[in-house]
Amino acid sequence: MPALLGLQGDGLQDAEPPPPPFLPAVLSPQLPSAGRGSNYHGNGGSPEIRNVELLQKLLEDTEEPSHSKAMQLIMEEDVIGRNFLYTACMAGQSEVIRLLAKYGVNLNEKTARGYTLLHCAAAWGRVETLKALVDLEVDTEALNFRNETAQDVALRYSQTECVDYLELAAAHLALKKSIAKIQAMITDPEKALGKMHKEDKNLLINACRAKIEWLELHPETTVEELFEQKQQLEDLVNPILVKMATPRPVKSAK
Q: Would the pTM count as exceeding 0.90?
């Protein structure tokens, strides 16, 4: 676990993930404490599930006297830029993150030193919280003041399971970006280096469709398989790009 460095550290390194001092008055009756000894992963009778339901009721009921105060306190930051979401990440409260995302909270905000919620969950070894954040499409490539991604932070704190998951998430993202880039080239002629032949266009459309279907059919895959799919796509598109960039011969006048 991260060592005790306090505010001189990176904001992720407290010995225990403390609830921000401004929260307990309104939210502590609804939310479990953030200590590592608490039960965060129980069944329907666990503190986590029961309190998430109470928090949801509080947020949904705009007539509730504590509603506006609760939202204000949830987003209030401490001196290094952490709000309640960081406490939830340290504690592995994935359902709290998913719930608050429904209310439009910014999951990509950074602390004073550039740490995101993803960095925080990675440092504390919260794999399920990482999965929730990735599902919610946070920026997995965000850098902190050390120019570290969340995967780099997980590696620094020897959170092996988090490192492996984030490597897999990065491979997923790389394949999706390749597909999106090709689709943009097909639909926006200005992004292409030259005119695309109709047969090449159809070939790329079908290839992108096939890769999207492959992703849908293979939710459980490996980094190697994802990179193989990406390489297949690149091997298909590169000759077409070369063809498009090659000037066509000028027909001689008769």
A: no
Contact 135/99 with Cβ under 8 angstroms? no
46 pLDDT more than 60: no
State the Cα–Cα distance between residues 2 and 123, nearest whole angstrom.
Answer: 7
* Token pair 């988090």: residue: 162
Identity at 186, one-letter amino acid code? I
Instruction: Judge whether 253 lies within some domain.
Output: no
Pair (152, 166) in one structural domain: no
Tens digit of pLDDT for each residue in 226-236? Answer: 999 999 999 99
Is residue 137 a part of any domain in this protein? yes
pLDDT for 49-60, tens place per residue?
Answer: 346 666 776 677
> Do residues 30 and 84 share a domain?
yes
**Cβ–Cβ < 8 Å for 117, 89:** yes
In sign, the C-alpha dihedral spanning 202, 210, 173, 226 is negative
29 and 134 in a single domain? The answer is yes
Show the domain range for 46: 6-158
